[in-house]
Design a protein that fits this description.
heterodimer, A: 453 residues, alpha/beta, eleven-stranded mixed beta sheet, ten-stranded mixed beta sheet, 21 strands, B: 246 residues, Rossmann fold, six-stranded mixed beta sheet, four-stranded antiparallel beta sheet, 10 helices, binds adenosine-5'-triphosphate, binds magnesium ion, SufBD_N (chain A)
Amino acid sequence: MTQLAANSQEYYDLFREVKSLIDENSSNKLNQYREEAIEKFKSLGGFPTTKVEDYKYTNIDSIFGYDYGIDLKNLSSKLPFKNECDIPVKDAYTLYLRNGYFIPNEDLTELEKKGIIVCTLQEASLKHEDLFTKYYNKKAGESDHSIVALNTAFAEDGLFIFVPEKTELDKPIQLLNFLHATSDLLINARHLFIVESQAKVQFLDCTHALDCRKFLTNTVVELFAEKNAKAEYYNLQNQFDKSTILLNLFVGQKRDSEVITTILSLHAEKIRNNVAVDLEDENCDNHTYGLYLAGAKEHVDNFTAINHIAPHCNSWEHFKGILNGKATTAFCGRIHVYKDAQKTEAYQTNNNLVLSNNAKANTKPQLIIEADDVSCSHGATVGQLDEEAIYYLQTRGIPYNEAYRLMMTAFMNEVTEKIQIPELKERIEKLITNKMLGKITYCEACNNKCVDQ
Amino acid sequence: MIKITDLHAEIDGKEILKGLSLEVKAGEVHAIMGPNGAGKSTLANVLSGNEAYEVTKGEVLFEGKDLLDLSVEDRAKEGLFLGFQYPVEIPGVSMINFLKIAHAEHRKYRGLEPLSASEFLKLLKEKKALVEIDSKLTNRSVNEGFSGGEKKKNEIFQMAMLDPKLAILDETDSGLDIDALRIVAGGVNKLRRKDNATIIITHYQRLLEHIVPDFVHVLADGKIVKSGPKELALELEEKGYDWLTR
Ligand SMILES: Nc1ncnc2c1ncn2[C@@H]1O[C@H](COP(=O)(O)OP(=O)(O)OP(=O)(O)O)[C@@H](O)[C@H]1O
Ligand SMILES: [Mg+2]
């Protein structure tokens, strides 16, 4: 084994130093995964630099080179805000988290009445040990992204949601995660969502940064859809200039299930999303969508892997981005059709609208097809604003700004129209417009007074 | 209505309009004919304010106002309408939404509130009937996937919705089948009033049998080289443009 580079070694050593503290703050069950995870982190070579092909556009090593503190014990269970924060969806079951730690509130009882289990991961590992053992780290543990292993090593707690068989939720479950700290902070958030057979649920995951601190969130979400389940997961990434967001989303689908995931990347200094979908049984439908708006020096990197393991599954993947300023974005879409996955239909599209000469969009499809009877397609575009169309709209009396707004909304439409929560859709469209017009997009009602530099 | 005097315009440094003058009064229909590349579409675009073109000389008065001083959208709201030779497809922008916004902008300019949803739908229905346009089209994105003829019909439909003072129709007849031509011409005729005017750019005298012009002009090499009564169109059809440009 070769030596780890400096930043990786530092985290490896840090783990050794604080392991007993982490163990103390967590549950035995969760602690059982740490040792293997940190060694995996090491064997994967630690944090990737841009020399690693899959991280060509995002230097994780340099991200972790910054001196973040880590939140080893979630001391305060109080929420650091009044509840009038900018909630994207009013009519929802709202769950509050602080720095990735779940803080139970009243909405819980309503959910519990429906038989839904909502608790901390620690509690789940004790009270619902079977479920926990069956699902925890099942997908993440297989990942060869070292930041996922790092998360498993460090995560003390997180959110656990179990939606039992045949349970259909009338409203979305909304997670409001507030980042609150007096110093720059690394957060290893960890969530596990299980949607049992024939159950139906929508998750909306939002994180707000409340303080003008540099936050690095390294989140792992595992979402399991059992037979005939229907799950939607929306992740709203709308923080501010000093935030770095690393999201590792794992989806496991069983027979006849349908999953829609949509990642909405609106505001952060750097974003890297790793999405991995396993279609393990026949007849699954998967929709993996993403929308990114990057201006100034923002960076957004979406790395996706759709694995067609079983036959007769369909996947639709569509990522759309608008770039301005000196923004850089990357999209890498891997579709892997395994040998047995006959009659696969897999579609992938990535469209980029580049508004400035200094912005750069990178896009790379990657098809690995081992079965012969499949229908796959991929397409990528990098284009500019259609000035002809704007002119056409203007000749009908529509002012330039309004025409521009219409064009942006239209461009995003193919992704936004797939958002099944009307309030969220409306809000996203407004946020897009605001951002395009150079206004702030982050929570206005929260006491975030951070001014972008 | 509109008075164009000694208009010079260029694109990418190349002069296309070379001293064009034309006056159109309220209630009149003028036809502009002329060889390919003469500058007909250029004239239409310069009048509606396309920034790709630079006006280097001349003056345009629209209802007494300096037209060249206005933004593209304000020209539209002052009552100028351009029916495009090549209507632009705008995927993702629905026809209805587009028309609603455009209509509301026109009303706002005149200090009026937008129409209520039901009033708007009533207007839409009425104008749709006028150009016999299918609801299937108005439910789609602007011009997206429309056939050539459908696009042209859609231009007249928009004109009907926005009720301009001066409409410039750039080859609205090309690509139309016989029925569509009749419908489009019928639409234009129905919209004709004493207080509005139309400039029709066309290559075919055929259209002018349906929409009878008061004047016919020949635009060649960036200038109006000949003007005459409607019979001029027939003569052009017979003789071509050579005898005028030699
Ligand atoms: N971007 C450009 N750069 C240089 N020349 C241009 C440009 N755009 C148009 N032109 C030229 O301007 C001239 C006038 O074009 P215009 O479209 O006005 O002609 P037209 O009279 O409408 O012709 P048609 O009957 O074919 O529609 C043509 O010679 C055309 O090639
Ligand atoms: Mg032309």
